[in-house]
Each structure stands twice: as structure tokens, then as C-alpha cells.
Amino acid sequence: MITNKSHNILLIASLCTSLSYGKEISVFGAGNLENSSPYGLSKAEKAVLKNNEKVDALSSKIDALELKLRSFESKQDDIKQKIEGIKSVYESDSQSMNDTKLDLKSTETKIEENKALLGFKIDENSKKIEELNKKLDSFIILQKKNNKLLEESNSKLLEVINKINADYVTKAQYDELVGFINKSLSEQSKSFTETSPKKADNLSLEKLPKETQSSDKKELKKEDKTDYKKLFVEATKNYQSNYISKALPMFEQLVENKYKLDESSFYLAEIKYRKKEYNEAIQSYKQSMIANDKADYIPTLLLHSAYSFEGINQKDNAINFYKTIIDVYPKTVEAKDAAKKLKEYEDATVEKKAEKKAEKSTKKTKKMTKDKKKK
Predict the structure, then answer these.
(1) Whole-angstrom Cα distance, residue 38 to residue 301?
(2) CATH of the domain at 301
(3) According to the model, what pLDDT value does residue 187 have?
(4) Are the C-beta atoms of residues 312 and 279 closer than 8 Å to each other?
(5) pLDDT digit string (tens) for 315-331?
(6) Is residue 110 part of a domain?
(7) Taking the model in full, what pTM does it have?
(8) Are residues 184 and 275 in the same domain?
(9) Nearest alpha-carbon partner for 289 in 316, 306, 265, 258
(10) Are residues 96 and 173 located together in one domain of the fold?
């Protein structure tokens, strides 16, 4: 860089040249190099003057260059500041880009993890769906078999009920019917727990056993039905209040006039059952079931019918009824009671067999002892 020192050096050189070639200045100003218009100069003075002019020109140029240099340095500082600013922005952007890359990488990792987890769940759900489809197919096949079996059982039962409608049924015939019904119902699948056999559409209450009919009764008039409705309500209240003696004749009258024959017969049967008149109870239970075999009280009807058969020492019929309740109504309280009864029968049977075995063993031992004594 050119500085003021270089300018001073040029001035000193010029003075030295003047001194080496100069002579004393004239008193009249001749040879005065300081004059604006010097005259009377020697060759050496003229050379000095020329050198001074060159030095001044160079000094001016140097000053101009210094100005330009300062301007350049100022611009250079501005450029440096701008570069520093750009550098700072770049570093900030680089850090932001780096953070973005890290976030993107983390997101990609999570996506891969979720993709793997989702694939696992899809495979697991596909297996479950396949298993459910297999079970559904098996259930459909079983359902079809059960429907076919139920249709066959209903068809057979319908034939029997039609036969009941056409002819008078004796006690022996009814016992035979009970056995057939129990056998048919026990074959039905437990998946149809609340299904009851179809009731014959042409069921004629006029053809019920003679003991439940009244030949001399005329058809009720419409205005009399209201009275029987009140009578039924009163009879039901008496029964529920445990006024059995009052309820009995009322239900007998209702059954005789065929008013709500299913319920009236059931209540009448319950009264007979409580009075331990089991034969009559069985007949009324039968009449109630023929009138409506889909009533809510059918499980109770079957259970009390079984108890009634026990009461007249018909244990085989009782056992059949217990099995029917368990097969057709497995989720009811009556089914639990029926299961207990069957367990009692089974325990009693096992006990009897053990007693017979012990008795047989005792007889055999006694016989062997006698044979030894004879010898």
C-alpha cells in the first residue's frame, strides 16, 4: 500500500537533487524554484523543477490511488460483512436442513415400524377371519342338520296330535304318547333350547277327552265372555294369594266353558298337583299343553308332570320328562331341578347295584362256607 511516507521520500529526493545541482538563489529571484514562474534557472535547476513537477504529479496520482484504495477497502469490508451474513444464514439453513433430515429419518423409521406392525395385525386378523369362516361353515352345516331333524320331529308330533284330536285318548295311550314326545324332543339339538314343537293348526278342542267336556253346555254368548274374564282374573288372584279352595271351582268352571283353556287348565292342574291328586293333575297338564305348547310355563308344566308321575309310581315316565326338560330347556331353573332328580335316580341305581353285588357276594360266601362244613 502507498502511504504518506512514500510521498515524503519523494520530496526528500527532490530536495537532495536541488542541493546537488543548485547554487545560491539570486537576490532578484532568479533561480528561485519556489516562485510560481521561476526564471534564470540553470540546467540543474530546470531538471530539479521538472523532477518536482513529476513528483507532484505522482503525488497527486498516489493520493487518487489512496482514495480509490480506501474506497475499495470500504467496499471490501461491506462485502466481508455480506459474506459473513450469508455464511450465518447458510449455517442456520444447514442446521435447519440437518434437523429436517433427522426428523425425516425418524418419521421414516416410525413408518417402517408401523408398516411392520400393521402387516402383523393384518396377518393375525386374516387368520382369525379364516377360523371364523370355518366355524361359520360348520355351524351352518350343523344348523341344516338340526333344522331337518326338527322338521322330522315336528312332522311326527303333528301326526300324533292329529290322532289325539280324532279319537278319545285313554290313560295308557297317553302314557305311550308321553314316551314318544320325550323321545322326539330329546333328539333335538341343544342349540334350539327355546324351540317347541309346532302346534297343529287344525287342533279341535271339541275332541278332547270326555272328562274335560260338557255335552250339555251351549256355546257362550258374547255378553257372557266379560263375566268369564272377570272370573279368570279373580281365580288367578285367589290362586296367587294361596286361596286354593276358592280358586278350584272357578278354574273348573273356566275349563268347562273353555275360557283361556291353556292357562285355566294349567292352574287347575297346579291345584290338583298341590292337592296330590296326581292322575287328575296329569290330565289337566296334558290338556293345557295341547291347547298351547309354546306357553312360558311349559318348563314348569313338564317338571310338575314328572313329579306327578313319580307320585303314581311311574318313574320311567318321570325320568323321560326330566330328560326332556334338560334337553329342550337347559338354561331354566326347572332344568337344574330335573338334573338333580336324575342324579338322585342315578345314585340310587348305583347304590342298588352295589347292594345287589354285596348281597350276591354274601350269598356266595355263605354257600362256600356250607360246602366246606359238609366236607
Answers:
(1) 159
(2) 1.25.40.10
(3) 52
(4) yes
(5) 889 999 999 999 889 88
(6) no
(7) 0.42
(8) yes
(9) 265
(10) no
